[in-house]
Amino acid sequence: MNISLNGILETVREAVLNGSSATLAFYGTVLLPQVLVCLALLFLGRYMNARLWKTFDWRGVMFLAWLGTPVHEISHLIGCVVGRNRIEGFAIFSPDKESGSLGYVTHSYERSSLYQRVFGNTLVALAPFFGGAAAIYFLTHLAYPQLLREFGAAPALEWRTFVSLGALSDFASGWKSTALHFYYFLTDARNLHDGWFWVYLWGMISLGAHLSPSRSDFEGFWGAALLLLCLPFIVFISLAFFGNRGEEILSHLSVLAAQVNMLLLMALFFTFMGALFVTAVTLLASVFKKVLYS
């Protein structure tokens, strides 16, 4: 009996250790990079809109809103449908100068439904990130599919990346090569003389500027998000009782996450370029106004 009990306790201990290790790897290599990229997109999007509003008033904000806002609101609508939240009202694109609103989706959920409260609210809040990423994929696939290949060839972040300096160096070199290809794409003379390139560039910056959720989108999100953060820990510990299934699933998730991260990073690259452009234009406009009215 003691031997059997010790064996069970040892199995549980190994499952907890292996499951905890897989969970930390998931948080560090799958979840954390997405959170950091999304936070950067959130900051850059609000920065661009704030500068455009300050310099050009409502007309400046509208310049980047025509594509990004409809995609943002449609993403919320899809999130409501999948998350089974009730749609109370919506406007895909309805600019209101007084409130500063460009569009909206109002929704409600049944508090007795765990699915709607936890999964539904989280999906509705984060839907613009994934809807925007999907729009970026289709727009790039139609216009410049080689960019998808370049970003797709970039190395994925895995726990093995941090095992040795060599692995970390290979990871950095891979992304350096991707960044250089992106730079060459932006500075290619053939692209600079192509009108469709500028339309594509505007579309990507517009999507990036409106990819992040607004403050109101996060209502009812944080409690659900904390519960969902605990889910990988439970899942990986449970899978650890069945051998190396946790590591196999983590490997599959890393591949899937790498594809999502690739699209989000594309959005970040273009949004960063857009932020530089907006900064330059607004500074020049401010100087011009001072000279004109001095």
Question: Topology, please?
Answer:
Elements: H1 2-56, H2 58-63, H3 65-82, E1 86-91, E2 104-108, H4 114-143, H5 145-152, H6 165-187, H7 189-192, H8 195-209, H9 222-240, H10 245-293
Antiparallel strand pairs: 1-2
Strand order of the largest sheet: 1-2
**Largest sheet geometry:** 2 strands, antiparallel
Number of strands: 2
Q: Judging from the principal axes of the Cα atoms, what is the shape? A: globular
**Rg, Cα atoms, Å:** 23 Å
Outline:
The protein has 294 residues and is mainly alpha-helical. 77% of the residues lie in helices and 4% in strands. It is globular and about 85 Å long.
Can you offer a commentary on this structure?
This protein is mainly alpha-helical and 294 residues long. The chain has one domain. The chain is 77% helix and 4% strand. The chain starts with a helix and ends with a helix. The model has no long low-confidence stretch (mean pLDDT 79).
